[in-house]
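Long-time lurker. I teach an intro course on protein structure, and each term I like to show students one example going from raw sequence to a predicted 3D structure in token notation. This year I'd like something fresh instead of my usual example. Would anyone be willing to generate the tokens for the chain below so I can use it in lecture? Attribution to the forum is fine with me.
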Amino acid sequence: MNKVYRKLAFTNIKNNGSLYLPYIISGIVTVAMFYIMMFLNNSKGLEKIYGSSYLTSIMALGVRTIAVFSYIFIFYTNSFIIKRRKKEIGVYNILGMEKRHIAKLMGIETVTVALMAIIGGIVTGILFSKLSILLLYKILAVKETVKFEINFSTIINTLIVFGILYALTLIYNMMQIKLANPIELLRGGNVGEKEPKSKWLMAIIAVGCLAVAYYIAITTENPLNVLSLFFVAVLLVIVGTYLLFIAGSIVFLKMLRKNKKFYYNKKHFAAVSGMIYRMKQNAGGLASICILSTMVLVIIASTVSLYIGLEDELKTRYPMEAVTYVNYLEVDDNVDSVRDHIRQIIEDEGRTITDEKAYGYFTMMTKQTDNRLEKTSENDSLVNGTYVNIITKDALCELEDTFDEKDIPELADNSVAVYGMKKYNYDSINVMGREFDVKESKYYKIKKDAYISISFTNEYYIVVNNMDTLTQLFNLQKEVYGDRAFTFRNTIGFDFDGTKQQKINCTKKINQYLVSDAEKEIGNGTAYVEGRAENEESVHTLYGGIFFLGIFLGTMFLMVTVMIIFYKQTSEGYDDKERYEIMEKVGMSNAEVKKSIQSQVRMVFFLPIVTAAIHVAAAFPMLRRLLVMFNLTDTQLMIECMIGTLLVFLAIYYLVFKLTSRTYYKIVGNQV
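-- Reply from a regular --
Happy to contribute to a lecture. Here you go:
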């Protein structure tokens, strides 16, 4: 008896190959991707890479993301298949098979498909694991010998994760059979085909959700606020998109139906009526395609931008080859001794200095009320504070190459110039109780301080006339803040020639001097050095890992998108077959039916990608500010990567459209 069930199960899988083959292949790919990501996360070879902590965190995020989307995707495709087969199962029931027999049959089918997907995925993952780690090393510019290995703990974890997943699909399939009667099973493929009512309230809510999400994306400026509100905006876009396709599409189609000139066109009549008739069950699929397309575009464009702009990001974070920061409890603008020592260290290492800078200023966190900059309390949020830098004209010109002394007006003891992320709009400014006239105020973003200022709503550089005025303000903030007073910072930077290793050696020598020999010059202050070459590998590892994960997840989401499109086209093909046959019988010519089919397919197919492109365009301001947190300030590069990603995705999307349309036309039959 069991042999009969097994034979029947295998026959069913074979006969429904057009449904099961893509399901099995996508399952194999999903399992393989999960295995590879977990393999990379557990790889001992990655521990040898400088900055490996970044990689393990990134790969762990990838493992969790793939696991979550695997459950969503497999459940979606399984529910589609079980829906398409309800009529077949209903026939079995009517012919005399009890539900327990059907359940046994479905169990064998589910287990067979699960074994094919899991075993095939693990084998594929093992075969491609070495290639994946070689690709990762290539991206990270790591020269390391890679040995082929099989990670048995990864195999066990993969078996557990996907074993549970397919067990849940089996339970779902059993429940579908148990809860349905034979008549419902026979009608299962046609459930939900009543014409839906126009839901204006839901459509208005959809537009409202998208409007709020777009407003957040366009108007939120502070990167930390962007980070916290990003997920709110994403949630609103997801909810708004689903409601828009479910309710808004019906409202829109019914508006088209009221337009007699458009609706009673032979090409549009059948397409519009058919879409209204089944939009309730198809809107979710369209919305899913739109959301996934948006995710693919955002993830790939962002990670490609970060990777291409890696050198600029490195220079933004580390503006010179070696930068020494010396913090004092008192104002000390005499850094000549420390500067001379560092210069001598670099020359003793045989390097030629190409540029050097030295400047001092102090920074404090304030609360701005109109033209007053006041003390913050311990409970005040730093995000909403104003970041203030008190600096002299000479120091500002050293800090920022684009500033020239002649660009800054002559200042007196009671006057200042204010430059900042936002234009200061008052004629005077009160700093901790001391009033100054504002002689000049304008928007100016200090590029070399970008990685510091990203955490605050506003930042000002207040330029004073000389060190005496700066010292007075420094002592004033010490009185106001007491134990929480800010320090005075001297910055000493050098650019010099040499190989990467020679530059790293210089930075290490400078660090040794600061730790052990600089006590006389620094006194009670603290000092540390940051080297560009020394941190290059860790930065490359971070951005390379993000790029690898972005391509990996982008590929997965693209695969999911393609499979949803395929199953949607297949579902619509079966639903439309009888409808178009009836249309031909009542007088529509084959050519007219074909035009109607093409009109419907194009409208349905390109609606999600157009909506996705609008989502991405609205999200760009927020994405740009998020990428600033990763030191990417090149807006033009971001735009070029976004447009390039969109064009490549459109080409792939169109190719998928052509291929899946053939499946649709094949199912519909003579009408094409």
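Some talking points for your students: The longest helix spans residues 532-585. The chain is about 70% helix and 10% strand.
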